[in-house]
Fold:
Amino acid sequence: MSLKRIDVGILGATGIVGQEFISQLDSHPWFNLVWLAASQRSEGICYKDAAKWHLSTPQPPAVSDLIVNASVPDRAPKLIFSGLDASVAGKIEAEFANAGHTVISNARNYRMESDVPLLVPEINPEHLELLPRQATERGWSGQIVTNPNCSTIILTLALAPLQPFGIKSVNVTTLQAVSGAGYPGLSSFDMVGNVIPFISGEEEKIETEAQKIFGSLKERKVESSPILVSAHTTRVGVLHGHILMISVGFQTTPNQNELIEAFKTFTGQPQTKRLPSAPTHPIVYTDMPDRPQPRLDVDINNGMSVTVSRLRPCSVLDYKFVVLGHNTIRGAAGAALLNAELMHVDGLIV
Amino acid sequence: MSLKRIDVGILGATGIVGQEFISQLDSHPWFNLVWLAASQRSEGICYKDAAKWHLSTPQPPAVSDLIVNASVPDRAPKLIFSGLDASVAGKIEAEFANAGHTVISNARNYRMESDVPLLVPEINPEHLELLPRQATERGWSGQIVTNPNCSTIILTLALAPLQPFGIKSVNVTTLQAVSGAGYPGLSSFDMVGNVIPFISGEEEKIETEAQKIFGSLKERKVESSPILVSAHTTRVGVLHGHILMISVGFQTTPNQNELIEAFKTFTGQPQTKRLPSAPTHPIVYTDMPDRPQPRLDVDINNGMSVTVSRLRPCSVLDYKFVVLGHNTIRGAAGAALLNAELMHVDGLIV
Amino acid sequence: MSLKRIDVGILGATGIVGQEFISQLDSHPWFNLVWLAASQRSEGICYKDAAKWHLSTPQPPAVSDLIVNASVPDRAPKLIFSGLDASVAGKIEAEFANAGHTVISNARNYRMESDVPLLVPEINPEHLELLPRQATERGWSGQIVTNPNCSTIILTLALAPLQPFGIKSVNVTTLQAVSGAGYPGLSSFDMVGNVIPFISGEEEKIETEAQKIFGSLKERKVESSPILVSAHTTRVGVLHGHILMISVGFQTTPNQNELIEAFKTFTGQPQTKRLPSAPTHPIVYTDMPDRPQPRLDVDINNGMSVTVSRLRPCSVLDYKFVVLGHNTIRGAAGAALLNAELMHVDGLIV
Amino acid sequence: MSLKRIDVGILGATGIVGQEFISQLDSHPWFNLVWLAASQRSEGICYKDAAKWHLSTPQPPAVSDLIVNASVPDRAPKLIFSGLDASVAGKIEAEFANAGHTVISNARNYRMESDVPLLVPEINPEHLELLPRQATERGWSGQIVTNPNCSTIILTLALAPLQPFGIKSVNVTTLQAVSGAGYPGLSSFDMVGNVIPFISGEEEKIETEAQKIFGSLKERKVESSPILVSAHTTRVGVLHGHILMISVGFQTTPNQNELIEAFKTFTGQPQTKRLPSAPTHPIVYTDMPDRPQPRLDVDINNGMSVTVSRLRPCSVLDYKFVVLGHNTIRGAAGAALLNAELMHVDGLIV
Structure:
C-alpha cells in the first residue's frame, strides 16, 4: 500500500504502555517515531537514561538517543500516541487536540465523552464519525480517539462474533496480569503467592465501555447498547495476559457449532484493509481444554489476537467460554496503533 | 460436654488431606488418633519416615512413631477419616463400611450416591437421615458420610445465608489454590507466573453437588434443589485458599442490607451444638474492599470460616460478591472433622 | 522475674517493621505499648485508619484505637522502638536520644558509629558498654542501641557457634524475601517469575556490620574483627525468610561433628537470662537435606531461631552450610525487642 | 558454507529438552529432523498427540505429524540428539553408539567417562580427540559426545575468559529455574512463594564436570584441572534461566579492567568457524547493576549467550560477579546442537 510515511510521537513514553508503543513502532511501515515526551523529571534527558526499560525485547537503538521532551505540543508531530496516566491525561491530551494534533489515547479520561470514539477497529469503525463534533463542540483543530480499557477490549473482541446472534447479557470474571497496573503498580509484597479480588474502578469501566463500543451510531451520536454486562475483576501473579471467564445469554439460544464457527471466521476492517498491525484472525479458537494459558498463548500473532476456548452450555445464561488477551499489546499499545492505522488508511489524520 | 473420647484412624494418611487430618486431630477433645493407613509403599514403616511432611506446623510427635497400616479394616478403630484418592477410595471405603466402620470421607466416589449424605453441617444436617438406607440397601453394618468438593463447600456455605431469600441461579468463577490438587499435583513448570483456566471435572462437581446439598429430604430421599449453578474454574499460584467470584439471582430481588445482615448472623447446628471445630461465625463479612485475600485471610478462625465481601448489585443477576475459604481445612479435612463431630454428638457413631 | 512493667512507643509504626513491632509487643510481659508515631500524613488519626495492615495475624484491638503521634519526643515514653526509614531515622532518633529516651533502632544510620552498640544479644552483649560514651561525646541524656541489617543478624547468629573454632573467612550468598524491602518495596512487575541479583548497598552492610559485631571491646572501643566477609545478595519471590548459602574458612580445619554439635548447643545471655522473646535454641540444626525452606521453616520458635542444615566440607574454604532466618522477626523487630529485653533486665533503661 | 545437509533424530523427544531440540532444529541450515523416539507409551503415535507441548513457540507443523518411534537404532538416522532421562540413557545411548550412530547427549551418564568428551565448544574442542578411544576400548562403530550439566556449562563459559589469568578456586551459588528439573519436575506446592536450597547431586556434578572441562588433553586422556570448585545450589520460582553468583581466586590477582575486557572479547571455535547456533559473543557483559535478570535477559542471542555483570573485588577470593544463562538452551539443547555443529564442520560425523 503506497501510504505516506508520517512522523509520530509518544506522550508518557517512559511508562509500561509508552515502552510498548516504542516497541510496536519499531520498524513500523507507516509511522516514524521521532518525538517522545514524559514527566518533568525526564525532560531534556536521553531516553535511555530517562526510562527504566521493562521489556525483554531490547530498546530500539534509534530511540535510546532521542531527547525526552516536555509534554507540550510545540514541535511535536501531528500524530501522537498517548500512554499518559489518567491523572494528567485529561489536560495534556486536550492541549494537543486543541493545537491540531491527532491524539490516539490509551487513557480513560475521554473514553466515555459523547463526541469521542471509543474504538475497536474490528467492531465499531463507524464510531469515527463522531470526530467532526470535536471541532464543532470543542473548537479543537485536532482530535482525540481512544481505545478501551485492556479488559474491555479483550472482552468485546471475544463477544463481537457472537453479536449477530443477539447477545442479551454477559457475566465476566477477569484474572488480570500485573502489567495492567503500570509500573511500579502492585507491590510484590501483596502479590507473592496471592491474588487480589479487587481492582479499583475496573468493573465499572468494563460494564460501561462495553455498552458504548457495541452502541449504535445515529446522527453522530452513539446510543449505548442495551446488553447487560456484569464484571468481577481480580489481579493474579501473571506478568502479561488477562484471562476472562465469560457467560453469555442470548435473545434466543443459538447453535453451539455456529458460535464456534463465528469465532473462527471473524474479521473486520483491519483485516480487509490489511492494516500492518492487524492479525489475520483477531480470534484464535483452540480445542485444547486447558488452554489458553498466559505463559503459552499470550504472544499469539504478536499479541494482537485473543484466544478463545471451551465454548460450552451455561446452566444460568446460555453459553460460557474462556478468553485470553495480551493486556499491554491488544489491550493497550497495539490497540491504539491499530486505531491510528485505520485512521491513516481512511485519511482521517490531517 | 461429657462425650466419650473415641479412637479414630485415617485412610490416605500420607497425602495432603491426610496430613491436614493429622494436624486437625492433634489435641482434639473427642477423637484420639491411633491408626494410620496408606498405600503399600508405606506399610509397616514409621509415619515420620513414610510421609514427606508438607505443613508448616510441626508433625505431632505422637503421630511420628505410629506404624503405617495396610488399608484394610482389620484392627482399625470404628471411626475412620478418609483422605483417599478417588482412584482407590471407592473400593476401600466400601470395605470399611461393610466391616462396620463409620467412614467420614473426603473422596468424591460416594458423594452423589442417593443413600449417602453429602454433608455441610451448617446447611443440611438432616441429610444424615439417609444413613439407615445404607444398611438396608447395601447390607453395610457401617456407613459412609461424605463432604463436598472443596469449592462446593465454600460456595454453599456462602450461599446458605441467602437461601431463605429464594435463590434461583448462581454463576461462580473460582480461583483455586494449588494445594487443592494434592501432592505433587500441578507441575511448577505450569504454574510459575501462570494461571490455568481449567480443572478437569471440577465444574461439573460444583454444579451437581451444590444442588444435592441444597436438596430437600423427603422420605429418606434427597430431591435436588432446582437452583441453577454455573461454574467456571481456574487454578492460580496460591498455596492455600480458594477465591470465588459469585453472582446470584433470586425469585424476587431482596434488600442488600438484609443479605449482608444474613451473612453476619448466619449459624447452624455446629454452632448451637458447640462442636469443637465449629467457628462461632461460619461466615465473616468484611467491609474492606480489597479483601479477602488468601495470604491475609485464609486462616481466619483456624481456617473454618469463609470470608465474604463486596456484596453489590449485579446487572445480570441480582447481587454479586467475593468469597474466600481454606480449601484443605474448611474445604476438606476440617469439613470432614465437623461432620464426624456432629455425628458423634448426635450419637450416630455406633 | 519480677521486673517492672514499662511503657514503650514505636517510631515508624505504620511500616512493615513497625507493624511487626506491634505484633511482637502484643501481650508482652514487660513492655506496654502506649504510644505510636508515624509520618505527618498519619498524625492525629486512629492507627487502624492510618496503617494498611500487612500481617496475617489480626491487628491487636488495643492498638487499633491509639492515635498516631508526630515523631517528636514530647509525651513519648522512655523506651522507644524505631522502625524508621533510614532517610529520616538519623535526625529523629538523635532528637529522642538527646531528649533522654532509649531508642532501640532497626535503622542503619547509627549502626557503624563508634559509640553505638550494634547488638546481637547472643553474640556481643558486652558492646553495651559503649553506651556511656554517647553521654560523654554527644551530650545525650538518652541513648541509641541498634540491631544489624536482617541478613547480617542471620549470618552472624549462624557463625557465632563457629567463632571459637577460629573463623578466618566467610563467603555468603543470600536469597532474600521481598518483605525485607519494606512496603511497597519491590514492584510485582519485577518479581513475577523472576529473581533480582542485586540489592543496593546490602553487600557492603553485611560485610562491615559482621566485622563490628564480632569485634572485640577494648576500653570502650570496638575493634573490628579481622574475619574476611564477602557477600553476594539476591532478591527472590518469597514473602518472609532469607536463605543464606555460606562457606567458612578457619585458621585450622575443625572437626565436622564438633561444628554440628556447636550449632546444636549454642546459647547466650538471652537464654541464661530467660528473656521473654529468646528462643531456647537460637539455632535449630536439621538433618533433612532439602530443608530449611522459607515456607515450611521460617516461623520456627516464633521466627526467633535460625535454622541450619547440610554442614559439609567445602573444597575452596573449609565447610559450607545452609541457613534460614525470619527477616522481619529475628532480622528486625524481634531482634530489637530482644535488645530491649536484655537492656531492661540489665537495668540499662533508666 | 557448502556443508552437506544431514538427517537427524531425537531420543527423548517428548520431554522438555526434547521439545527444545525440536524447536532449535526448526529451519536448521544443516540438520534435517526426520526421526523422533520416546518411551513405549508414545510409540506409534503422532508426535502432536504423544507430547504435551510446553514451549510458548508453536510446535513446528512438520514435526507434529511425525510418528514417534521406539528407542532402538533400527532406521534411525546417523546423527542422534539425546534428551533422555539418566535412568534410561545409559543403556539406550550405548546401543545407538554401538550400532554406528553419533549420539550427542545431554544426559549425565557418560559425561565423566574417560573416553567421552564433555564438550563446551568455546572451551575444550580438542577433547573431541578422545573419540577414537570409544572404538578401540568399547568396540563401538559409533560414538557418544556429551554436554555438561546446565549449571556447569553456564559456569564454565563465564570462567573461560578468566582462565588465562590463572584461576585457582571458584565458589559458586546457583539460583536455578524450575525447567531444569524437567517435566513435571518440582511440585507447584513446593515452589509457590518458596525457594528450595537443595538439588540432589547437582553440587557434585558442577564441581567434577568443571574440572574435566578445563582439564588438559594429554595422549588422548583428559587430566582434570586442579581448579578448586565449590558449589551451592538452590531452586527458585523462575521458569527459565539460572543465576550464578561467583567468586574466583587467582594465582596472582589480575587487573579488574582486563578481566572485564576478557569477558567482552571472548570467542572460540564456534565463532571462528561460524557455526549456525553460535552467538557472535558467547558472553555479554552489562554495566547495569541490577542485571542480568531471568525475565529480561535470558533470551539474549536466542538463549545462546550468557550475561555477566558486576565484576568487583571479593574480600575472600579475588573477584566476584553475576552470571545468567538459559538452562534449557545454552545449558542443554542448544549446547548439544553446538556440539553437533562443531563435529559436523570438522567432519567427525561419519
